[in-house]
Amino acid sequence: MMELSALKQFLVVARLEHLSRAAEELRLAQPSLSRTIARLESELGTPLFDRGGRLRLNDSGRIFRDHVERALGELDAGRRAVAEAGGDGPGVVRLASETFLTLSGPLAAYKRAHPAVEIALHWSPPEDMARRLRAQEVDLCLASQPIPAEGLESVALFEEPVGVGTPLGHPLAGRTSVTIDELADQPFVTAREGHWLRRLLDRLFAARGLTPRIVCETDEHSAIADLISAGLGIGLAPAIARRSATQAPVAWIPVDSPDCRRTVTLHWGAQNHLPAAARLMRTVITEWEWEAGDGRGGLRPL
Q1: What is the pLDDT of residues 133-172, one digit of tens each?
Q2: In sequence order, what are the residues at sequence separation of 6 or more whose Cβ sits closer than 8 angstroms to the Cβ of residue 44?
Q3: 3-state SS, residue 262
Q4: How far apart are CA 247 and CA 297, in angstroms?
Q5: Are 89 and 83 in contact (CB under 8 A)?
């Protein structure tokens, strides 16, 4: 009989594909974790990992992982549904996103309207979002780039152009538009790999056989405008950033490319039972006036 603890441990090993790191995250001794995985493989009658040089989840392991994620997700959903039916507190909503700057408005409005609800925010790269929704680790995901749609429902919140931010004295600052080719030799300040802003930059340049000259990459996305204003380089920024108040004086120039855009989409699991708190959050986000704003203020990349 498979134990829940063993299944949870398997999921960590499957995600990290590394026994020692998984043991460290789980706070277990590595030999104990190895024995747990070996017992699971013995019960199933097949290896779950390839062990040639480096631990890799094999086809059987991926099939088992998907079933385990769904099973544990259903157990957690059942627990939450029982708590909701019994009126056990105001509830919790779990929201994952690549950035929470975009969500600051609706999150503030939601918290004002439902102050007792606990909001659990999770940063998540887009490649993990579909899995986390299907496993019911989170209720809602907000993505600025495409994610696998199988088993998910979604609504597009808004689409907007992405322009280039430059220092006010930059030669491009007075332009009405700029092409990617004209940006080829410019120094870029951008986010680290995986963030939608960086992926868009890499994709735009790769489509033209170019590589961006990156002089600064950072996890502190709110600092990008300050670094641009300081003269370290230029950087991509969405149109919504122009409505964000900031002290950094930065010019924003449209990019002459139909691909230089982002679509922000809210996702949830098609088969998931969303608790009342999450349904309310979904309503607030989908009905938010995303295009509202006076157009003033500085530039703050999201």
Answers
A1: 888 889 999 998 888 778 889 999 999 999 999 999 999 9
A2: 60, 64
A3: strand
A4: 9
A5: yes
